[in-house]
Amino acid sequence: MTEPGALQPTPIRLVLVDDHRMFRSGVKAELDDSMVIVGEAADVDAAIVVVAQTRPDVVLLDVHLPGGNGNGGSDVITGSGGVTTESGAPVRFLALSVSDAAEDVIAVIRAGARGYVTKTIGGDDLTNAIRRVADGDAVFSPRLAGFVLDAFGAAAGEVAVIDEELDRLSTREREVMRLIARGYQYKEVAKELFISIKTVETHVSSVLRKLQLSSRYELTAWAVGRHLL
Amino acid sequence: MPYELSQPPIDHGDRQAVRRLERPAQGRYVGGVCAGLAEHLGLNVRQVRLAFVLACFAGGAGVAAYLFLWALTPQSLAGAAAPATQDLGEDRSARESLRNLVVGLGLLVAGGVLFAQQRGANLRLGVLLPLLTVAGGAVLAWSQLDDAERDRWLARSGEGRRAGLVRLGIGIALATVGVVVLATQGRGLVGLWDVGIAAVAVLAGAALIAAPWGVRLWGDLRVEQAQRIRETERADIAAHLHDSVLQTLALIQRKAGDPAEVVRLARAQERELRGWLYAGPRGSQASLASAVTEVAHEVEDLHGIPIELVITGDRPLDVAGTALVRALREALLNAVRHGAPPVSVYVEVGPAVVEAFVRDHGPGFDLSAVPPDRFGVRESILGRMTRQGGSAGVRRLEHGTEISLSLPMTLASGAAEKPGAAEEPGAADQPHTEGVR
After folding, report:
1. What is the ipTM of this complex?
2. CATH assignment of A1-138, given 2.70.70.10, 3.40.50.2300, 3.30.365.10, 3.40.50.20?
3. Model-level pTM?
């Protein structure tokens, strides 16, 4: 991982946090050489220690974890606030879940995760998602996109007048989310909308920011109702 | 006489001939003992009653027997569930029976005592009278425990309950007076002080000694209760896992050589388990979202190819919606047959239009190249949608094909009902998504 080859980019340093050992070894087997696992943890407290020690680029984080305050993955993110990699970039979190329950996913996203994928994701898709998160972009599964469209009223036709509005999606963001919900890859979205992949990533990151910061009534009430805020 | 009510069901086999001894709620004078006994033994009620009255003069044996039977005989359930229309009559008869009870008992006791005195027996009235008072009070108070009566009072607030409280109060007062008279035995109220203090001291001492034991017993009881609840839950979960997961695992082991079947089984089981674990209120079964979900699962089961389904919003299922669901099913079948996984479905239920997209990653097909006489796309999908005023399209992507369905919603068909799923927190929680791959 210290290989300074110009053509070979530095491998992404990963920490795996999951309380199922079988799943951890499964992920290890699927990852290619561009990633190296520098640490593993099986519960919240161990995860916070490992993240602080290893300062990885990306933490693959199970939504459901024992320990901490009982909030699973969200507790790891909160407990690792301010930890940066050696290059100074913040440690990024990619949430993994088997539960599919919107509340779990949204809680971990609002805690600061950069994306969400399900555990049944294929090896290539997982590698892509990790790489994207390591670059500071967001990863949305079709399901997460569907939730965002619902929660922001975009499916019902509500659209932000100005892009900065936190409680609504802009027209472009809505289009991107719809295409992701339809199962399009980022590059397919870009081709469909005649924009660059980078622009797609910008839109997705912007939606992620809104999802994390929005005080939209439904999101807030929904989260308060589940003691997430 | 409403004895038919108290008859047990006839299907008791060998026991059907023997009627259980129980006190009917109606047709009784005092406690229903005579009536119940007559019914049980197949005798005439009047004869039984006469026998009891006569027995009362034999040293009060009748009273004792009556009280004994009253305490041990259950009230007839059929009578307890007496219809509300008889409430007023019941009430009156209850009051009458109470009066009869008091007057009759008094007369009987007085007669018995006089009779005994005449025969020269020394009954020590100083002891007998307080004892009888205590017994009378106890009967009155205990009568509150009569199941059927208590139910009636609980069910009816106001007058009935107040009458019950009055009876309870009188009973307790009678018993107290009896105890006091018995305890003082002519020493006057001053003597009661000493007795009372001694009694209180003994009671307090007993309470002190028994308290820790009682508390521990109570705690044990609670622990045991909690444990039983947990065990019941565990048993429920175990039963469910056994019926579903274990069966599927056994099936998977047997069909290990057939990957498609294994995938299908695992997929169906996963869905079932998910539904069991995370099932929440999903609204009415006849919603568009649930219909789409059902169809997607059906196709998935049929072909063993995972379908990624995302639905936003929901609305009641109407004729146009049903057509859309059928067209969607055809599109899905097409995707799993001719396309390649992953197959994605996105259904967006908007206020003005319902849109559905079915996308696969296969080589795709050209609609114009399809012979007009066969292919399901033309009739099953395009035809269905256009007949409902909607439209359908097929697009070839770089990887795969996408069929899009669009159905405009008129106000009449219910689009105004839900201006948007996000307006409804319940719907916003659950984007009706299944099987994210």
Report:
1. 0.76
2. 3.40.50.2300
3. 0.54
